[in-house]
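job 3f2a | input accepted
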Amino acid sequence: MKDTFITEKVRKVSIGDFKYISSLFHHPGQASKEPCFICKLPWSTHGEKASLVGKFEFHESGKLRTLDDLQGEAMIDVEPASLALPTLHSICGIAKTYVIDPLIAHSIQFDTKCQVFKNS
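job 3f2a | predicted structure (120 res):
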């Protein structure tokens, strides 16, 4: 039996949370002027000029980052546009912030009979 070689194109994708991906590409992090590690669109995540969901311009996109744009040598040979966020990790974070934490706060308010939040 002869050996057979099969050649396939492979696309590398790195999956990780923001801190992990930022460290791979020497990105300054989500508190920086350009918090997205995929594009170069500047916005603020804090202070009076914070970009909130209600006023963020979602239709705008920044120029995509490339390996050549990095401040140092990347720890992985994958273009920043080929990154993926961990879906389960993201869903768990969103659920904790917007579902679990408010339910715990409501339970504490109910159990202690104290007013934690303003009535809406």
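job 3f2a | The chain has a mean pLDDT of 81.
job 3f2a | closed
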